[in-house]
Amino acid sequence: MALKLLIKNAKAIITCDENDHVYKDADILIEGPKIVSIGPGIKEEGAQVIDGSGKFVYPGLINTHHHFFQTFVRNLITIDYPNLTVMDWIDKIYRIFQIVDNDVIYYSTLTAFADLIKHGCTCAFDHQYCYTKKTGKDPVDRQMEAANLMGIRYHAGRGSNTLSRSEGSSIPDNMLETTDEFLKDCERLIRLYHDPGPYSMQQIVMAPCQPINCRPETFIETVAAARGMGVRMHTHLGEGETEGIKARYGKRTLEWCRDIGFIGEDVWYAHNWEVLPEEYKLLAETGTGISHCPAPAVLGGFPILDIKAMQEAGVLISLGCDGSSTNDSSNLLDALRSAYMMQTYYTKERGGCASAYDMLKIATINGAKTLGRPDLGSLEPEKAADLFMIDAEVLELAGAIHDPKNFLARVGLTGNVWLTMINGKVVYKDGVITGVDEKRLASEGEAVCTRVIRKPSEAFRPFL
Question: Which residues of the chain, if any, have pLDDT below 50?
Fold first, then answer.
């Protein structure tokens, strides 16, 4: 018999549904993985009650771009991302990436998951392209192990780099795979882990790293394989490589993707700050999504997407943290605030900007659409019980709680939430991640980081 939970007397329930409904002083009944009903005065015999008094309830945030392994390669002023081009940064940072092993993959993934969960994220996509001599083909398997331990909904992007340095790539040769290796491992992972059903906790995405560092056949064959197996596709696009792609193929990267078929409702791109207004129509007509990652854009001094204009054109935009080597954290609430602030900076120049609530929907329902998850992204009956709650009755929030829809990004609430629920299970409450010994895991993770990353890498020498 499925467990029943009843959140009682929530101060506000922000649904992010099609009607932007906000319930005041209401309840949510949950049975097993799904929401059964929302409204005032719900009674259910035998249900476990969570007191929602004074709490705001939001749909779980959905992260559509990340690199979990990078949580052990961050806070490095010795590789100063704000003062480097993306291509120069790649050249320096891959010298560290190539020494990553599977212990790093596992513990850095746990670290990212903890940060995400504590800040209201309930479903996360990771673009795992770090395959070294030490990791072999095991990184996604270790990430799935970490996701199961933490109880988070996980979409794994199986990435790859297949073009050598001698042919124009910036990737060390010892981190390259062949297209055939990549495709075979994708097939293995899809067979083992991909669950396309409602309330699925794990899915696989075929995600070659980026066109500039891959052979064209890697992308071409990915399109055929992914559509044949019914999985989605993802890559980096428009983040500094466009001129290189033009020199190589005589066209912009988005045009190149269109011509080979790596575009459509089952595809989304990370970043794309090089997108042109005249390209919005192509993205909108094909249903291709964009994962906006505010931290690397602002830290790198790169162009800021015109989200208002893109949404008016019909482009699907979601929110991502991006890897910690260009962000330094995995806090999606902080990304939400940063994204909103970056839009407001240009409001006079661009004739208005997306609202704080618009940004919340980008981080929730748009994320669900991007990942192809109609069962996620809003609080409604039959949707997954993925949500987070904040305590709205603390002194520092007095005077701001009259508008819970715009509250998060506008007020700038970026600290730990009060509760995070995933698939109907409480995975974090009042400062405690359920079911794990957090201090032990943190200690083990630090030891792995020091042994595998800090001691061998020159970038960490000034700090040891």
Answer: none
Q: Find out whether 434 and 428 touch, Cβ atoms under 8 Å.
A: yes
CA atoms within 13 A on the CB side of 23: 23
- Pick from 225, 217, 256, 222: nearest CA to 238: 256
Cα distance between residue 161 and residue 138, in whole Å: 16
Cβ neighbors of 308 (< 8 A, separation 6 or more) are: 343, 350, 352, 353, 354
Cα–Cα dist 6/2, whole Å: 13
Alpha helices in 34-85 (DSSP H): none
Q: Contact at 8 Å (CB) between 49 and 6?
A: yes
- Predicted confidence at residue 2, as pLDDT, reads 87
For 417, list phi and psi in degrees, rounded to 5. Answer: -80, 175
Residue pointed to by tokens 């010892």: 174
φ/ψ of residue 49, rounded to 5: -100, 135
Whole-angstrom Cα distance, residue 188 to residue 140? 11
CA atoms of 47 and 55, how far apart (whole Å): 19
What angle is formed at CA 100 by the lines to CA 114 and CA 174, rounded to 5 degrees? 145
Question: Edge-to-edge, what's the strand order for the sheet holding 289-292?
Answer: 61-63, 121-128, 153-158, 202-206, 233-237, 267-271, 289-292, 316-319
Which pLDDT score, from 0 to 100, does residue 325 have?
A: 94
User: Do residues 28 and 35 touch, judged by C-beta distance below 8 A?
Assistant: yes
Token pair for residue 106? Answer: 């596992």
- The alpha-carbon radius of gyration of the chain (Å, integer) is 21
Cβ–Cβ under 8 Å, residues 41 and 27:
yes
The one-letter amino acid code at 34 reads: K
Cα(222)–Cα(242) distance, integer angstroms: 21
What is d(CA 179, CA 378) in angstroms, rounded to the nearest whole number? 38
Tens of pLDDT, residues 154-184 = 999 999 999 999 999 989 999 999 999 999 9
Least Cα distance to 418 among 428, 403, 408, 405 occurs for 428
How far does CA 158 lie from the centroid of its chain? 14
Provide the terminal-to-terminal Cα distance of the chain, rounded to the nearest Å. Answer: 54
Look up residue 93 and give its DSSP letter: H
Q: C-alpha distances in angstroms, 419 versus 55, 94, 382?
A: 10, 37, 21
Give the DSSP per-residue string, 293-319: -HHHHHHHTPPPP-HHHHHHTT-EEEE
Cβ atoms within 10 Å of 438's Cβ, excluding its own: 12
Beta bridge partners of 387: 59, 421
Identify the pLDDT of residue 309: 98
One-letter amino acid identity for 323?
A: G
